[in-house]
Amino acid sequence: MNETSDRDVLERLAAPELRGNPYPLLRWLRENEPVHRTEAGFFLISRHADVQWALSRTGDALVVPDREEMARQFPAAGDHAAIGTALEIFGAMLRPGYAALRRMMSRDLARSRVARVGESILVKGAQLIDGMAERLHDGEAVDFHQEVSRPLTLAVFAELFGIDEVERDCVATDVLATACALEAVSTEALEAADAASERVESYFRLLIADRRRSPRDDLMTALVAAHDEDVDRRGDRLILGLLWVLWLTGFDSSAAGLDRGMQAILDHPDQLHWLRGDDQQAAAFVEEVLRYDSVILLTPIPRIAARDIEFGDRMLPAGAMARMVIAAANRDPSVFPDPDRFDPSRDNRPTLSMGYGPYYCNGAALVRAEMSIVLTMIHDRFPDLVAAGEPVWTEAIGTANGIRGLDRFPIRMGGTR
């Protein structure tokens, strides 16, 4: 049966019944239309080998769209600040200095800074878990996403940048509202995104100026210092572009990772011995969570084919815009035997959950640290958790930032009602 005969693939992926389990459709796509042209005009690449190749050849065979190309895709950009912000981000990403800033940040996040926030993850995780313990023991349902995943990851992420507690929720809300501009279907939604974009842009500029005047021991200061020393500043567009990308994909992906980990705890009790072992075993559990139920549905940054590209017997024509379906690639049986089985003992080195090549996720080490620490902690504290209802998925399917996220995730203690 042709899975796309009645509705477009993107429309089907947005259907409520597929938000939690898109994998049958993604399997059909990978096996039947591995280079699929959507009704929106861009292509979806879904086989593992093709996705990995495309990610590794970004900047060569495939390029990030420039401002002019994005303006053609979004002709309303001239009238809306939020879409204009998206175009500025893409423009900044094409300049050489952006890559240098990104490499510096990746090194910083992958080493000492993540090690230093490990204690913060432990402390904040324990506080949040303590906050719901009494209700769980009394038989009540609690919302894991709203009470643990989101507040923990947002607090840790904001702490890295030195953003005050009273401001972090507003910044996070406005960043996500701005991302929705690229999917907005009403004037009201676009106007709300415009206002959010202007608030965030103003706040980021104030942060940059503050760190120039008064450096601190945070990631914002490190970014500003590296930018000012080694990069042509040009009105701070480079650093602003990087900040937007970080906040569009940062804490939200970490929260989704924790939610996926909790779902794995509920769905695979026979594998929980991995969380009762050493750090290496917990890390293996986390890697399988990230492969088995991908946080990233498809790449948020599109690529444009610089020439005709053959993917096996399929062709991506020159000038076409493509996005890689990470969730489909991570269940490709040519790389992961029996891919629909949750198995932390498998070799997950080929997993593409954190990207590949020049756009490998800057915060990969942070996501893994948060998941390993918090999932181990909560399983040790509450070994018999069960679902207290169906998770509530976000309305968007992840075309703005690529993330499959939850709004609600009710859990309770086993044996209670």
TrEMBL record:
Recorded superkingdom: Bacteria
Similarity field: Belongs to the cytochrome P450 family.
Name by which UniProt lists this protein: Cytochrome P450
Organism of origin: Pseudonocardia adelaidensis
